[in-house]
Every structure is written in structure tokens, then in C-alpha cells.
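Input for the complex:
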Amino acid sequence: MDKSKSPLKVALHGMEDRTAKTMVMYLQGPCRGAAVVVSDSEADVDIFDADVAGVSNLMEAHRAKKPHRPVIALSLRDGELAHVFYVKKPVKTDDMLAALNKALAFSGEIKHNETKSAQLSVNADSIQPVIEKPESTHLKSFVIDNDERKKTAKHQAAMQLNEKGFNAFIGNVTGLDVNDPSQFAVANYNPKDYFQGYVESAFKISREQGEIMQLNSGWSPVIIFPHNNEIWLDADDKQLRSFSGLIIANTLDGKISTTAITFESSSLSRSLDKFHSMDAFLWKVACWASKGRYPIAIDVTQPVYLKSWPNFTRLLITPHALRISALLIRGPRTLANVAEVLNIKPQYVFVFISAAYALGLTGQARRESDALIAQSSEIKANKNKGFLSRIMSKLRG
Amino acid sequence: MSQYKIIFTGPVGAGKTTAINSISDLPPIKTDAAASDMTKSKKSATTVAMDYGVMNLPGGEKLHLYGTPGQERFDFMWDILVTGGIGLVLLLDNTRADPFVDMKFFLDAFDKFIGDTAVAVGVTQMDVSAKPTIEDYQVQLGGMGLKLPVFAVDARVRNDVSILIQSLLYSLDPGLEE
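Predicted:
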């Protein structure tokens, strides 16, 4: 089908809502928008499910009403009716595209003949234009990739870490106690020393240029798909965690590069379960680079703010991350103050800020007024606190 | 003993019934009926009165979970439903024609209740329609002067619904301990 042409307008018949919705998505996804579902009055082609009860009558009635409109029938059996293009179930994309092409050609032929007849007609009264008011359609135009739902890693529910598993999972820096206030000033890290810095840089280039990029690091390459906000990496979390925790700026710097790759090479068959969202990937990489420290760009003595809640259901949830978000979304605070108010170890605040900062969700409050506002070390408890705590306990059970 | 409840709201087909089912300790009581009118294009049955589920808590307490009817013509019931509610879960279907209009409608409709409590927003069907993105929702909310938890949610997955409710509870009181 010629993609430069507008899509064929089709009307669906004999399909219940779920099937109709699937067809809308199928035509726009696997069939690459070759046809679009519209109301009956606007359609050039009718598509029937030929296996539902009463479809014969429905089809007959339609053909009587629109005798020249091509019909495609989706059927379990071979078809017999003349001028009906049959697509055998289970429907294959090639078969459907072929049927749409035939219907298009048939429709063009009919229109051509009709024009010819009209030109030959001497009786203008015999031509009665039928003006039909298009029915409004509530179908949203979206393109679905049929493989999207198979990208299980991309859509999987969040892992919620508790304090017990934190140190083993996130790691720590030998000789540094990030929870000791006297060491706060040095409890930071530079993302540029780690894989995180290279990932951030590659994401930025890829997004700015709108091109599919490959981050080469001497390790498994990361393929970046900026339009879908996803990456592909052939490595598990354990391997990624190890690599993300290494200082690589001095050892691998010359070997790390970002190169544009063609759509064809990026479209090679790839395991769908190895696609991840860019945000979820960078969030994890930042957590593992942080090891409980905060990014060097943050001044630990000044308040930080949170622009918006992270999309927690698709991110690694570090201990107390939801509480920290709920507090910071109310207004800027220093990291130490957050830890004090929530009565938690500073490392949990630091690791959260590292991940949120990597995604651009947090920043340093620069207004003088923010620094001047007295940051209370207490927050007003909800009147139902006891009950809410019991719900929380049940949910986290 | 006090009766506490969380209200689930959102347009037809956004997953309210499913979300309640995901976290309820009892099979939820549904009041679905065969859909007619405009709801028929979204699902064959729709909730005409309300959904109800319950979470049993330690000490014999219960958290009641109520789902509002999605059809706007039943909005007279919403005021009754929210009485005694501790917060609102708003579910939005990302495949709808304009989910931002839906969001604004429900936030306006429950404006007073939200002002007294809190709200968390779950966006369903993001694996079918990836746009608008969560960031787009945040931008819209920012324009309304709101900073709410907005998460991608699969209403069938307990963990997703649980995290959404946790964010609601922490919005009410960040001091709650894990």
C-alpha cells in the first residue's frame, strides 16, 4: 500500500466493542495506518466479521444500501460471495494489507465508472447527491506497536526496597559513613565519573538530535530510542549494578563513545523483554552510582525542591522514597532536614535525591527566601495517623 | 468504631472496579449493568451504583473502598460517597479521546473533598497508548497549580494500586512510618 496516500476509510460491522477496538489498533499498528476506522457514513470500505450470528442479513442490508462499496469479510471459512474480499482468520497482516489494496483498487474502479456514467448522463435530475451528516467518532487516533505489551521489563511493577535490603542492594563506599553529619560535606559523588554520566550525556544527545544512538562502553552496548523513551540492553540488573558502581572515567574514558545508528540496524530482531524505559534505567544507574551519596552539584547546606512526583510504579523505590517525595513536594528543605523530620538515615535521602536529580525532577532552591524560611523539624501529624499507619502496614505487608 | 473509606473515581473503563478488586480482601460487590448509551463504546457492562471492597486491618478495623459510578449522570451520588472519606484515587484511561479533560472534570468535581483530604492519580492503559506521558500530566497539573502523585498504573496489578494508595497516605502525612 502506498504510504504517501491517505489511509483508506473503513467501517466495522458485526464486531462487539472489544473486537472493534482491537481492529482500530491493528489497522494503525501492524498495518501501519493503511486504513483508519471511521463512521459508516464516511467509509470507503466495509469490514465485516463474517462469523457472528446474523451477519448475512447485516451484510445483505448493507450491500443493498451501498451496492458499490467494497466489502472485506474476516472469516473462518473460505468465502463464496462475489465482490467480497475474504481474509481468513486468524488474520495475517499481509493478507489484510492485500485485501485493503484490492478494496482500494475496486473502490477506485467504481468511482471511475461512476464519474464516466455521470459525464454521459444527459438527465441531471437522475443524479441525486446524498448528503450524509458524519457521525461523530470518539475513536482516539493512536498508533500501537503490537510488541509494546511484550516489553515486560518496561511495564513491570516497581520493586520496593526496604531498609533491610538497602545496603546489600545499593552498596556503600569504604571508609565513608554517609550518615555521619560530620562527613556530609564529602558524602557526595560526581556522576561524570560513573556510567551514569555517560548515560545522561548519550540520552541528551539522542533526544536533542532525535536519533537512535548506541552508547559503546566496552561493555554491553546500550541502544537508545528517544522517540519511544526506551533503551535496549542485553544485561541483567546484577551486571548493570556492578558496572554502574565502578568509576570508569579514568579507565574507560577514551573507549566510551556515542554513535548514531540507522533505523535498519536498530530494528534488528531484539529480545522484547530487554527494553526498558529511559527514565527507569537512568534512575537505577544513578542509585547504584550514588551508593547512598548525593550528587556533587547539590549544595548540602542549601534547600532542594522537588518539581514533581517521580512515576514510582515504574521505578526502583528506595527506602522512604515516597515519604521523602511527599515532604519535598510541599516545599524546599535541606537534605539533612528531610532526614531529621522523617527520622530516617540520611543515606536514604541522598540516594533518592541522586536518582531524582538524574531525571531532572529536583534542583537546588536558589531563592534567598527559601533559605530564610525556617524549616521545621516537625510536621503536623494527620488526625487519623494511627489508622493510616495500619493501612500502610497492611499495604506493605 | 469509625468507618474510614477511600474513594476511587474516574471515567468509564478507567479500571476502578479492577483496582478495587486488586487490593480488596473480599470479592468486591459490583453493581454493573449492561451498558447502553455512550458507555457502550467503552465496555459492555458499567457500574451504575458503586463498587465496594474492603481491606481488613490489624485489630479488626476495616478500610472501605468505594468506586464511583463512571457515568456522569450518577454524580448526585458522589457527595454521599465521599462523606467520611480519607482520600481520593483518580484513575484515568490513557486511550480516551482527551484524558486531560477527564482529569480536570474529576478534579473539579471533587475539588472540595480533595482540598480537605488528598488525591493520587493513576493513569491506566499506558501500555496501549503511551501518550500523553506522565510528564504531560504533570505539566497540565502544574498549570492548575497542583503537584500530585501521578503514576502509570495497571489496575490488575496489586503492587501498582498499592503504591498509588501509599502515595495518597503519605500525601496526607509524610510522617507515617514504613
